[in-house]
Specification:
The chain is α+β, with helices and mostly antiparallel strands. Helix content is about 50%, strand content about 15%. It has 3 domains: about 120 residues, no CATH class; about 90 residues, no CATH class; about 140 residues, no CATH class. The protein contains 16 helices and 15 strands. Strands 8, 9, 11, 12 and 13 form a 5-stranded mixed sheet that branches. Strands 1-4-3-2 form a 4-stranded antiparallel sheet, with helices on one face. It has a 4-stranded mixed sheet with strand order 7-10-15-14. Helix 3 packs across helix 5, helix 10 packs across helix 12 and helix 15 packs antiparallel against helix 16. It is globular and about 75 Å long.
Length: about 425
């Protein structure tokens, strides 16, 4: 599904059209109600000049999914995917008007609509939008939630609870969420070496920020300089901030935080529990991915992932604070905040979950973690696997059946983690 407009004709000066978009919506700070969002400006790297190649993503302020501009065999298409806002549509129509002014030919229907006001554009597209938003809500309910990609960098999680009030309310919620992100600072990444290891460092300086999930260390800056003298593990930073952090897949959103008013938070950022002092950011990434590896290993063992297994896993992650072990609680908490990005990294790794878990087994045996804590982590992950396998089948939690493939996966998990650790 989706909605597309087309600019055609041999007389269309695409370069001049892009120049006007850049000058009118990017460089001109007083450009009126239609503006490219700060987030869109940074993620599309418009500060380095427009990419003149085949594809460009533009996100207007007040938009949800934005517009993808493609050059396809002499035609330029303006694509609006399912889940766009009225501002996305209004922006697309304005781009069409500018294209026609630069020699493009629109279809008869599009030509007729070019003089419409924003309110009239809403009326023209309402039937189409109603159908698409209804289909989107049906997908949310059928799949117990979906992920809506925005510009290839942001993944909006939509739950059935978000959609319960209908299309208009859901569109308002997503617009409000995107409004939080659209003027956030997209934090840069840099490589650094420490103790012979490479780390990816990002920064947070009290302003609303979008931070890459690839970062392994975070440099924190307050009004009077560094909040913590050295960059701290990203997993520790996000864990301390807790629910203030939003996992958007490739990026994480952190709202504005005035460190001068958050002495308890600053103390938490500075303090690393004694038993964790020997763990590097890379070590924490290995530990934090483990629950997701267990989930993939067990839930997908029989070739399908049951909705009940997903729900059981999510419930365990949500209740991580009730666990008596602080290190296991922290591992599950980080996994909850990074679930989507961790799954993507695990799949992109190319190795099987079993092979990736061998790295965790090595870490647990390395001595960096006290033996008793390492045993708790290993046994806790095995119990997690059993809970996931037991979730499907049965009635009201009774008589649940673990498949043959899931039993084999649990045996492999026990062999790698528990038997390997205890000998």
């Amino acid at each position: 599904m989706g909605y597309s407009l087309y600019l055609k004709g041999s007389g269309f000066d695409r370069s001049a059209w892009l120049d006007e978009i850049e000058s009118k919506f990017v460089e001109n700070e007083s450009g009126g109600s239609l503006r490219i969002s700060g987030m869109g400006y940074q993620l599309a790297e418009l500060h380095e000049g427009f990419d003149r190649e085949d594809e460009l993503w533009l996100h207007p302020k007040g938009g949800i999914r934005g517009i993808t501009v493609r050059n396809e065999g002499g035609e330029t298409s303006l694509s609006l995917p399912t889940g766009c806002s009225d501002m996305d549509y209004a922006f697309a129509w304005e781009l069409m008007r500018m294209g026609v002014a630069h020699g493009a030919v629109a279809t008869d229907e599009e030509e007729r609509d070019l003089d419409l006001t924003d309110a009239q554009i809403h009326e023209v597209t309402q039937i189409h939008q109603d159908f698409e938003w209804s289909a989107l809500i049906a997908s949310v309910n059928k799949n117990e939630g979906i992920t809506l990609p925005v510009g290839g960098m942001i993944h909006l999680q939509i739950t059935p609870e978000d959609a319960v009030e209908g299309a208009v309310a859901l569109k308002g919620k997503l617009s409000a969420r995107m409004a939080n992100y659209e003027d956030a600072f997209v934090a840069s990444l840099m490589m650094t070496s420490k103790d012979g290891k490479e780390y990816i460092v990002s920064n947070y300086a009290q302003i609303p920020s979008l931070i890459s999930a690839q970062a392994t260390l975070i440099s924190t800056q307050g009004q009077n300089g560094a909040v913590v003298d050295e960059p701290i593990p990203a997993s520790h930073f996000f864990a301390c901030l807790g629910e203030r952090v939003e996992d958007l897949g490739v990026l994480k959103y952190v709202p504005a935080i005035d460190f001068s008013l958050e002495t308890e938070l600053v103390d938490s950022l500075k303090a690393m529990p004694e038993e964790e002092a020997g763990l590097t950011g890379e070590d924490w990434a290995t530990l934090a991915k483990a629950p997701c590896l267990v989930f993939i290993l067990v839930a997908a063992a029989d070739g399908k992932v049951d909705a009940k297994e997903i729900k059981a896993f999510g419930s365990i992650l949500e209740n991580h604070e009730s666990l008596p072990s602080s290190i296991l609680s922290k591992i599950l908490g980080i996994a909850q905040q990074n679930f989507e990005s961790f799954i993507q990294e695990i799949v992109a790794d190319g190795r099987s979950p079993q092979d990736q878990l061998l790295g965790l087994a090595d870490l647990l045996k390395s001595g960096k973690i006290p033996k008793e804590d390492a045993v708790v982590v290993a046994k806790g992950l095995l119990l997690l696997g059993k809970a996931i396998a037991s979730a499907s089948g049965g009635f009201l939690g009774f008589g649940s059946k673990i498949s043959k493939e899931e039993k084999q996966a649990l045996a492999v998990l026990e062999l790698i983690l528990v038997v390997g650790l205890l000998g």
